[in-house]
Amino acid sequence: MKWIVGLGNPGRRYEQTRHNVGFLVVDRFAQRHGYGDFKSKFTALVAFRTLDAAGGDKVFLVKPQTYMNLSGSAV
């Protein structure tokens, strides 16, 4: 099992800003590797799938929905 966590800040105010580069990277990875929709789990948005490129492991993509300085609690 592998986890890729993209840090950012929730809300429209921070969309497409440098504060959300982590979210943008995770979204691009999800798009390139055919992930489905992100689902709300606890205080994060999570998507996962099994990837051959990861040795057949499940790879979870996580976008914490807490502000950057509180992202540890979501992870």
Helical coverage, percent range: 10-25%
As residue ranges, the low-confidence spans are none
Beta strands, count: 4
Helix and strand content put the structural class at alpha+beta
Discrete helix count: 2
What is the percentage of strand-forming residues? 25-35%
- The helix/strand series, from N terminus to C terminus, equals EHEEEH
Q: Please state the CA-atom Rg, rounded to the nearest Å.
A: 12 Å
Mean pLDDT: 94
Tell me the strand order in the biggest sheet.
1-4-3-2
Task: Provide a quick synopsis of the model.
The chain contains two helices and four strands. With 75 residues, the chain is an alpha+beta fold.
Description:
It is built from two helices and four strands, in the order E-H-E-E-E-H. It has helices spanning 21-32, 71-74; strands at residues 2-5, 39-41, 44-51, 57-64. It has a four-stranded mixed sheet, covered by helices on one side.
